[in-house]
Structure formats: C-alpha cells, structure tokens
What we know:
Structural class: alpha/beta
Low-confidence stretches: none
Strand order of the largest sheet: 3-2-1-4-5-7-6
CATH class of the largest domain: Alpha Beta
Shape: globular
Oligomer: single chain
Distance between the termini: 43 Å
Number of domains: 2
Amino acid sequence: MSDHAQEIASGRRFEFGKNWLRFLDSLNDARILEAERSLTSMLRSADLEGTSFLDVGSGSGLFSLAARRLGARVHSFDYDPKSVACTRELKNRFCPADPLWNIDEGSVLDRAFLTSLGQFDIVYSWGVLHHTGAMWQALENATIPVAAGGRLFIAIYNWQPYWTRLNTWLKRTYVACPAVGKWIIAGGFIAFQIAKGFVKDAATLRNPLARYRQYHGDRGMSWWHDCFDWIGGYPYETATPNQIFDFFKRRGFVLERLDACGGHACNQFVFRRPNL
Length: 276
C-alpha cells in the first residue's frame, strides 16, 4: 500500500482527488476561461506564450489546462493518484497527444523528485502546500524548480488566532470519521453556509440563487465541490502574510504581488527569483 493510501485508510488525509473527479462533471468553457483569467490577472500577463509552467499539486488539472491554453509548456504532478487521473482526463479531453503537457505522480516533499524536473519560468501551487502535513518543508522545496528570473505563484491559508484551531479540529475530525459521520458534518456545514448566504442576500435584496450560479467567477471553481474540499481539507496548516513574506525574503525571493484575504481563506503571493 502506498503512503497516500495508508494516510487515507488511517483517517489522516482527505481524498482530494476523489472530490476533483466529481468536479470534472461540472467543468465547462466558462470555468476554464475564469481559470485562465485568474492566472493572467495575478501574473499580470496577457498570456503565457513561450514560458514553462510547473503545476505543483495539479488537483483537478484545471489550471494546468488553463496554462497550456495560454501558451505555456506545462508539467503537472500530484501526490494523489486520483488527482493525477483528473489531470490526465483533462489532457485527453482537450489536448490529446500534446507533447508540451507532461503529467507525473509525485510529492512536493520529495526533493530529489523536484530536482529531477528541471527549472521553470512559473511554479504554481494554489492551495496545496498547506495540505502536505509539512508546509514549511513544502514551501522550501517549491523553490527548487524556480528558474533564475522565474516566478513562484502560491496560495496559503491565512492564520487566525481562534479560527485556525477550530478549523484544524473540524477537518481532522471529518477525515477520521466513518462515512455517516462525514455526511453529518458536511450536511451541517453546508446548511449553515446556505442559511448565512440567504440572510446576507435578503439584507441586500439579492437573488439568493445568484451566488451559486455565479460561483464559477471565483477561479472557475464549483461551490459544492469547494465546500467538501474546505470541510475535509486535512492535513491543514496556515501562515500569516508576514510569515510567508519573511520566509521567501530570507531565500532571496522578491514579492511581486500579494492578494490578502483578511479572513480564513487563502492569501495569494507571486514571488520572483532574481536573475543570477
């Protein structure tokens, strides 16, 4: 049994790939275009033509697909075999036999594996490194494939003094529960989120269904699948923007862009490794 399978069987890891396989059923052109927009917006570039792009923890494969459609040469990998299968499914669906998109199974915690991949203009890891169980080592290793003059685009959960502890407990409890327990926790969380949304929409006279219909505007994601990803997303670690900034400053990286969430979502960072 692989390390990943053992972690799942022992209730120490959420089945991210299983959730992403379900997400693929809802993937459409609008979601893909929003994924492309999220990349070009944070990277401040109209396209990625002529660049090399490493997707660290490719998940559904959506952002590997977006980068490839924007013109990048793409290499994707994930620790979860089902996420690797998702990424391969998207390649087969949209870019069959494309020699400029390669897909592997591997771990960002494996320094030898990262070194073997070579150097990339853009290393992308959105909402992944805090789910490895060793976030700071993952952040360190993510610098290995960044070429001189290249950029590292990451998103890390924001640390909060109370909510971080509560969220950690919730996620750890969810992954350790049997199926019935998981559905009770997920049902309660989703019902709470829907009720909260209705209250907010009533106060602003907004159509209460609009937030779900328009959710693809947030990086092309799906509200339903994001809920399960958030509830079960364990291992789980967080950091403040200053902690992330200081970590990469000590390693010679320069912050190009920060999109701070101010809550318990993810802070987004784009760092550049200066030319040697």
